[in-house]
Elp3/MiaA/NifB-like radical SAM core domain-containing protein
Amino acid sequence: MAQLDVRQKLEILADAAKYDASCASSGTAKRNSRDGKGLGSTEGMGICHAYAPDGRCISLLKILLTNSCIFDCHYCINRKSSNVRRARFTAQEVVHLTLSFYRRNYIEGLFLSSGIIASPNYTMEQLVEVARSLREDHNFRGYIHLKTIPDADPELIHQAGLYADRMSINVELPTVSGLKRLAPEKDNRRIEGAMGGLKTSILDTRDAKKRYKSAPTFAPAGQSTQMIVGADAATDGDIVTKAATLYDRFELRRVYYSAFSPIPDASAVLPLQRPPLMREHRLYQSDWLMRFYGFEPKEVVAAADEATGMLPLDIDPKLAWALKFRSSFPVDVNRAPRELLLRVPGLGTKAVANILTSRRWRRLRLDDVARLTVSIAKIRPFIVAEDWRPVALADKAELKPLVAPRKQQLELFAA
């Protein structure tokens, strides 16, 4: 292999990292270097593709340590049998890049993953060394997200957690059968065992922090995972159920969904076309329903088509559920509890909070609700207000044409 300079390596390994979606930086501990000590922060304005809880954009240097791998997962462009150009950073090159990019105000943190080189333990040692050097040698206080290798020694994973803000282990595929078929060298039990170990370490450290201020932190931003959508035969119902199980068992901060993208020299067992990107979007909306709107997993699954198990692509899951269970509506905006208001299509968490606050002072009319929401047209069939009762709408056999978003022809040169 011809020797590559750092710029060429960066071009290859930054492009190779784009398939991993789980790089949000929300939830970490706040650190900064305003006292004149150290370098970097987890706060401030960013310029790139990860977002904090308050909506700020956080920029991350998102790269692989190497795109070489001893595994041969069918869906991975970096698999052993793939005909791609290979590159590899040293640990110190990643450290130098991170500090250089930070000093130029390009980034506020690092997202580092890697293919498996030599062995899981050797690869994990290199990842840990990057994080250790940044924290201890350079007093870097910015955000660090490390991808964890499930087969690595638990002690190495524990060391990584002492330096990283967030750690993640990808479950890869939503079903055990799909994992065996497309990634035979990976084992679901080992993956979930490593996730369970991370959960235990996070909870133990959190408990120690309550009793001893000097106790070290361990992955303060928690752990996340990612599932590939559309590479196997798993339905949306299977994916939603798997995600709910992972949230419940391992207290994950996030489950990310990545639509399968056809790769060069693809295996014959993979589909020829990628799934619609809207499918990925609907799964994220379903995830929000479970995390923020109080929906049970079985309720979200009920919104899917009974024959195919797929969520509709033309309407969001919340509207699909409401149309399927019209007996739950209309909801009185002046009397209904928060839990019922959150199930009204078109009402988000902020709108519901505004309704609950406003109705303490007066009975809400339809115009009042309209001022608290983005669009009243979608909401009207599902609510009762002081001057509104959807008698005619409630009697309609088919509500979908009235509340579904209208299809629009996009203009190529629209302003």
Notes: Residues 173 and 374 are 36 Å apart (CA to CA). Residues 325-403 form one domain.
